[in-house]
Amino acid sequence: MSAATNPAAISSNTSRRRAEIETMPEWLRRPVGKASEISTVQRIIKQRQIHTICEEGRCPNRGECYAQGMATFLLMGPTCTRACAFCQVDKGHAPMPLDPAEPEKIAESVKLLGLRYVVLTSVARDDLPDGGAGWFARTIAQIRTVNPGTQVEVLTPDFWGGRDSDRSADDLQRQRIATVVAMQPACYNHNIETVRRLQGPVRRGAKYERSLRVLEVVKELNPAIPTKSGLMLGHGETEAEVIEALVDLRKVGCDRLTLGQYLRPSLEHLPVQKYWTPEEFDRLGTIAREMGFSHVRSGPLVRSSYHAGENG
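Request: output the structure for the sequence above.
Response:
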């Protein structure tokens, strides 16, 4: 009998997970929001068989964002071709085929929910010829057709399409980014997720410099588009390493920043090494603003799309 089906193992894991949650600092405990606001969104996305990262990632802020007319849709299915050790999204080498009607379904959902600001993100789809860049463009176009007053922000993967030593892979990455940039999103977000030293164990299949290059290319292609990135703290990084990452982001022209606390989704994911205090997040937020970031959200429950429609 495997551990997955062994009642004793399941009970033990459940007890360990409950104990872990109970030791979580008080500042990380908050209500998820009004049940009515959450259930309305859940009903609409379930009926249309689409996905939001708000639900797939069980974001603690989803009730607040829904109430403010914002949501983050997860494009191209719920299965990622990579296996980052912090992420709750399902992993697999054989993701579902694209749903041809997904862009239309998302545009219709945006209208039904009355969303004024939408973030489009996706799983990594290394199996697709363009990494999914064209799907971002198609979805943006459809949202604008149905909802001309809605702003669209994107949170993309790195769009890497080859070996690190392959020069053509750099060109391919640039072409894919250009496909999305051509749609002139309200903001282009790509997260570096953690500090340079911890990229390997935290972001399997991703590279620190490669992610910085995404943000740099966006500015090269269209300097007018705001760029954004974020880190999840709690993997064992030091404050000095976080500040070094912020310096690196500013060097490639990154305008906006999110800093939040990593929360372990399950016992199969990386354990939390440290719970950063609200005061520490405040201090890092102040440092970031002094560096020149125009839009900073820094707090334990901050996520990539938190207050995304606000520019201050």
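The CA atoms of residues 85 and 269 lie 6 Å apart.
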